[in-house]
Design a protein that fits this description.
The chain is built from no helices and 3 strands. It is mainly β and 71 residues long.
């Protein structure tokens, strides 16, 4: 399973004691699907749904943006 997270940060010095940080982060940047294990509930090998992957986990691409003020 491969998952790439990515983040960018930029600091802006406002005064001698005040600093603003701009943040942008991305999780699962390439939106790679992560599938659940194959179905094992139906043990009939002649069934059309035997060992089929029927669902994926909820690891969709997400972005987060933030401002941080440090003093």
């Amino acid at each position: 399973m491969v998952n790439l997270d990515f983040g960018l940060f930029r600091h802006f010095k406002l005064t001698e004691r005040l600093e603003l940080q701009l943040r942008a982060e991305a999780f699962n940047f390439f939106n790679t699907p992560h599938f659940n294990n194959p179905s094992t509930g139906n043990r009939n090998r002649s069934s059309a749904s035997f060992l089929q992957i029927t669902s994926a986990r909820n690891d969709e691409r997400q972005f987060r943006f933030a401002l941080r003020l440090a003093f």
